UniProtKB/TrEMBL annotation:
GO molecular function: dihydropteroate synthase activity
Pfam families xrefs: Pterin_bind
One biological process term in Gene Ontology: tetrahydrofolate biosynthetic process
Protein name as it appears in the record: Pterin-binding domain-containing protein
Stretches for region Disordered: 1-24
Organism of derivation: Skeletonema marinoi
Length: 117
């Protein structure tokens, strides 16, 4: 996985396209791109109290969620999806404020301990 700046120089018409096919690129803010140039294992960390996969196990403690994220990285995850809203059938939707309240503390702790995206 590689992050590239998408800004092109003024003579970019003469330059060979150096980016992979669009299906392997995720646009990021400020003209950057996340380029998937290899297979990546994605860890899923649910921090919802009604998670169907783990029963809300990681919604109660930021430190438990952090330990799980670090274990995922140790086990080979190259990226972690942190879920703040359940996808369980019949689950109630949550507002953006609640979702942020759930995910931001663990994202901040992971950033302190790891560079994993």
């Amino acid at each position: 996985m590689l992050i590239k700046n998408n800004a092109k120089s003024s003579n970019s018409d003469d330059e060979e396209d150096e980016y992979p096919p669009a299906h392997r690129v995720l646009p990021l803010p400020r003209g950057r791109m996340l380029v998937f140039n290899e297979t990546i294992i994605q860890g899923i960390l649910n921090v919802t109290p009604d998670s169907f996969s783990d029963g809300g196990k990681f919604s109660k403690s930021v430190e438990d969620a952090l330990a799980q994220a670090l274990q995922m990285e140790k086990d080979g995850a190259g990226i972690i999806d942190i879920g703040g809203e359940s996808t369980r059938p019949g689950a109630e939707a949550v507002g953006i404020e609640e979702e942020l309240r759930r995910v931001l503390p663990i994202i901040e702790r992971i950033r302190e301990e790891s560079d994993i995206p």
